[in-house]
Amino acid sequence: MAALEVLESDLTSAVTLLKNLQEQGLSLLEVKDQLLLMYLMDLSHLILDKASGGSLQGHAAVLRLVEIRTVLEKLRPLDQKLKYQIDKLVKTAVTGSLSKWGKLSGCAGTIIKFQIL
């Protein structure tokens, strides 16, 4: 039961953090990072409940998983549009030069205001 309490407290703190950051505006990568973290925490919680013999019917974590997956699917077209710019930034960070890629623009300044459903 101690593991379940730890997961619940971690989930609560993650939701609080995400709501606080929402007001400031988040970059696309931060949003995806937080959503994937929350998704994994909910999935771990469900696996723990199922392994201990609990029922998943009507479980709040199932509804959150569906909600997070929906948000991630809605972000996918935006992610595809920014893929080139993200790849360019990653390549520049790895090589440390701009010569091959030219001027950086776009993705570094992209901030997305995002409201939690």
Brief synopsis:
This protein has 117 residues and is an all-alpha fold. It has helices at residues 2-22, 28-51, 60-95.
Topology:
Layout: H1 2-22, H2 28-51, H3 60-95
Helix pairs in contact: 1-2, 2-3
Order of helices and strands: HHH
Multimerization status = single chain
Q: Averaged pLDDT, please?
A: 75
Structural class: mainly alpha
Q: Indicate the percent of residues in helices.
A: 55-70%
Number of strands: 0
Radius of gyration: 18 Å
Low-confidence stretches: 104-117
Please report the distance between the alpha carbons of the first and last residues.
Answer: 30 Å
Give the overall shape: elongated
Number of helices: 3
Structure, described:
The chain is 69% helix and 0% strand. It has helices at residues 2-22, 28-51, 60-95. The protein is elongated, with a radius of gyration of 18 Å. The model is unreliable at 104-117 (pLDDT under 50).
Give me some keywords for this one.
mainly alpha; 117 residues
